[in-house]
Amino acid sequence: MIVGTWQLVDYVMEGEPDDGARSLGDKPLGLLIYGPDGYMSVQYMAGDRPLLRTENWRWTTDEEKLAAVRTFGAYAGRYEWSGDRVVHQVETAIYPNWIGATLVRLAVVDGDRLILRAERTPGRPPTPILTWERIR
Question: 131 vs 7, 58, 87, 111, CA distance in Å?
Answer without folding.
Answer: 8, 33, 17, 12
